[in-house]
Design goal:
With about 210 residues, the chain is mainly alpha-helical. Strand 1 and strand 2 form a beta hairpin. Helix 6 runs antiparallel to helix 7. The radius of gyration is 20 Å and the shape is globular.
Length: about 210
């Protein structure tokens, strides 16, 4: 007969003061990010990616790049920032990179993060702080996050024959401008992006302006 050797994960004194219904409530609040569709298409499909998928991809890509290039970053901080990066979109929705409202999108997203911070069942006391760091901070972790966040939609466009670019009549100069900061932050990635902007333009996926 087998013997159950598992021990309780929880401290009974703490657990007795927590309402599990509240915990479930917050988990479902987070689940709403899956309903926010982005403009990029998932490779080898005809559907758009959602923001929860993007957040997962962002976290994994940041982790892999940080390890591969042996970057001097705090991995826990980096991954937490990647996971909260798009949470404000639960309330604000996704704003296309080249939309005219892009410059003010962070205001509604910030309000959404504040709402989540105050939701019952939330055990993450630093949600506001972590989101603000990735949004406005100058740390190495925030810098890497911004690089990878711009890289991933580019990859999806490149591997879906420029579908989103074509639909929105995005220009070569728009893409180059949005990626220009990467030249200083991560020259290796910027060189690759520059080469592939040329390729995408030659394919007619980007308007040559």
């Amino acid at each position: 007969m087998s013997t159950n050797t598992y021990k309780s994960l929880t401290n009974p004194a703490i657990a007795s003061n927590i309402d599990i219904d509240n915990v479930i409530h917050f988990l479902l609040e987070l689940d709403a990010l899956k309903r926010v569709n982005r403009r990029s298409y998932v490779t080898s499909t005809t559907r758009r990616e959602n923001s929860a998928e993007h957040s997962w991809h962002l976290a994994m890509a940041c982790w892999s790049i940080a390890e591969l290039f042996e970057l001097d970053v705090n991995h826990e901080k980096l991954l937490k920032m990647a996971m909260v990066h798009d949470l404000g979109e639960i309330d604000a929705g996704d704003t296309f990179l080249f939309a005219s409202s892009r410059s003010s999108a962070h205001l509604e997203e910030r309000a959404g993060i504040a709402r989540l911070q105050a939701e019952r069942g939330n055990g993450i006391t630093t949600l506001n702080e972590i989101w603000e760091e990735q949004e406005t901070g100058s740390s190495k972790e925030a810098e890497l996050l911004r690089v990878v966040d711009r890289l991933l939609p580019f990859l999806l466009n490149l591997n879906t024959d420029g579908k989103t670019w074509i639909e929105s009549e995005v220009t070569r100069s728009q893409v180059a401008g949005a990626l220009a900061f990467i030249k200083d932050s991560f020259p290796t990635i910027h060189d690759w992006l520059t080469k592939n902007i040329e390729y995408a333009t030659e394919q007619g996926w980007l308007v040559d302006l």
